[in-house]
Request: fold
Amino acid sequence: MPLSKDPGNRAFEKDGSKNNMYCSLCYRDGSFLNNEISDAKQMQKFCIEKMKENGMNGILAWILTRGIPRLDRWN
Reply:
């Protein structure tokens, strides 16, 4: 998800500071929320669905999730 489109205005660490790498839909209080997601493909699918629920076009959501496999979480 583009952080500028995050409905929760970014994720936060345990100490209350903003996390600039992850959105509020998948990261909160210093940890990832959805532990059932075990790989980048599952995360892409999850993110596309959330963006579509928030009114984004499906093709645009797919394009915006293409960078997920390069995030630190999946390396």
Summary: The longest strand covers residues 11-12. The radius of gyration is 12 Å. The chain has two helices and four strands.
